[in-house]
TrEMBL record:
It comes from Vitis vinifera (Grape). Its main location: nucleus. This is MADS-box domain-containing protein. It holds the Pfam family SRF-TF. Residues 1-48 form the MADS-box domain. Keywords: DNA-binding, Nucleus, Transcription, Transcription regulation. It is found in: Nucleus.
């Protein structure tokens, strides 16, 4: 049974906010794996947080180069390269 509708605002209690973050992070990772399996696609998820380094999850061991806000697959043509 659900606990009701959640207000979309910052969670004031830091412990509760961290626990919610971890739980939702696990859920997003599971959805990424499901999407990859069901649709036969390579997928990547990057999560940025001010207090930590970016978290990166990849499916199928995809080789990616990650810069702030952009992912480049080694097989793709980069616009800045000759």
């Amino acid at each position: 049974m659900g606990s009701g509708k959640l207000k979309m605002e910052l969670i004031a209690n830091e412990k509760l906010r961290c626990r919610t973050f971890r739980n939702r992070q696990k859920g997003l990772k599971k959805k990424l794996q499901e999407l990859s399996t069901l649709c036969d696609v390579e997928a990547c998820m990057i999560m940025y947080c001010d207090c930590r380094d970016p978290s990166l999850w990849e499916t199928r061991g995809t080789q990616l180069t990650v810069t702030r806000g952009t992912c480049y697959h080694p097989d793709q043509h980069h616009p800045d390269s000759p």
